[in-house]
């Protein structure tokens, strides 16, 4: 039963636990918890791992670009970068060549650590997606992208 009878539900659902937003958040929380657990064993956090993944794909990303890619604020991304740099997993110039951007690059140790942890993180994703029938995977990813794009407008 609706608390506010004039509020129309976005789709047929018995209660809030069946709303798309709730189910997405539940899945995200479960993924984050599983990732936190395995990354902790490797001395990393989810934002640190995501930063290593993006720098492996796109060397030289700036703090602002990494913040957007890893869903954290610029201030948080700067803390993550500083921690990874202090751990010897990436390098950044002390001063920017131009503007304020200081491009980050993985060190050999950073690439090694990423390779060690990828197997554990990818195993989580395999567990997550193996419950989805293969013929529905592309549609699921497309639908999730559409949801994100719609809400980012």
UniProtKB/TrEMBL annotation:
InterPro entries: HTH_MarR-typ, MarR/SlyA-like, WH-like_DNA-bd_sf, WH_DNA-bd_sf. This is MarR family transcriptional regulator. PANTHER family: HTH-TYPE TRANSCRIPTIONAL REPRESSOR YETL (PTHR33164:SF43), TRANSCRIPTIONAL REGULATOR, MARR FAMILY (PTHR33164). It comes from the Bacteria. Gene3D superfamilies: Winged helix-like DNA-binding domain superfamily/Winged helix DNA-binding domain (1.10.10.10). The keyword Ion transport does not apply. SUPFAM superfamilies: Winged helix' DNA-binding domain (SSF46785). The keyword Transcription regulation does not apply. Coiled coil: none annotated. Pfam families: MarR_2. Keywords: Plasmid. It comes from Streptomyces nigrescens. Residues 17-149 form the HTH marR-type domain.
């Amino acid at each position: 039963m609706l608390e506010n009878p004039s509020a129309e539900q976005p789709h047929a659902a018995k209660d809030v636990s069946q709303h798309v937003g709730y189910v997405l958040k539940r899945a995200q929380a479960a993924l984050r918890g599983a990732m936190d657990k395995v990354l902790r064993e490797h001395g990393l956090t989810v934002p640190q791992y995501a930063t290593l993944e993006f720098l492996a794909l796109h060397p030289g990303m700036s703090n602002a670009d990494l913040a957007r890619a890893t869903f954290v604020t610029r201030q948080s991304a700067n803390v993550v970068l500083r921690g990874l740099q202090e751990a010897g997993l990436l390098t950044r110039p002390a001063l920017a060549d131009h503007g304020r951007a200081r491009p980050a690059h993985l060190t050999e140790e950073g690439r090694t650590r990423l390779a060690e942890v990828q197997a554990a993180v990818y195993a989580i994703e395999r567990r997550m997606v193996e419950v989805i029938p293969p013929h529905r995977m592309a549609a699921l990813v497309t639908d999730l992208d559409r949801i994100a794009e719609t809400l980012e407008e």
